[in-house]
Hints:
Elements: H1 11-25, E1 28-31, H2 33-47, H3 55-69, E2 72-75, H4 87-107, H5 116-128, H6 133-144
Antiparallel strand pairs: 1-2
Helix pairs in contact: 2-3, 3-4, 3-6
Amino acid sequence: MSQQNHNFLDLQDLELLVNKLEETYSCDIICNYPVLKEVTEKVNYYLGDFDDPSAYKVSGAITFWLRKLKPFSFQLSEESIDPTLFLNEIVSVFYGYNYLRAYSKNKGENYPSLSGKFLKDLIVQLRYSSFSPSSITMLFWALCHER
């Protein structure tokens, strides 16, 4: 059965993450809501092809579309220096990672403990390299099943 009517992106969790980043960077983050709506539509459409998408697939799709469509930006004054060029990559990686952690904890499964160095490298790679939703899914799966 298709999941076309299912909303995979939890906007409340996303808002909590963005609020935390606002505190961290002492800046306001602006959400382009039409773009965020498109992210939600793309995620739901992509995952709607699967009867029961795994948490890895959901996490990979959300990470991909948040990073690809970039719905967030910092509100900066003219004299401000942009604190990060990687805002949407940071949001996407942390949302995907937190999604998997919550899912794994609920199932009593292992979840990855990722170093800051690894997260930074992943964020940079997402900015400058090509990744598909499937490649991000496989990366998250491999991280959770590493022995």
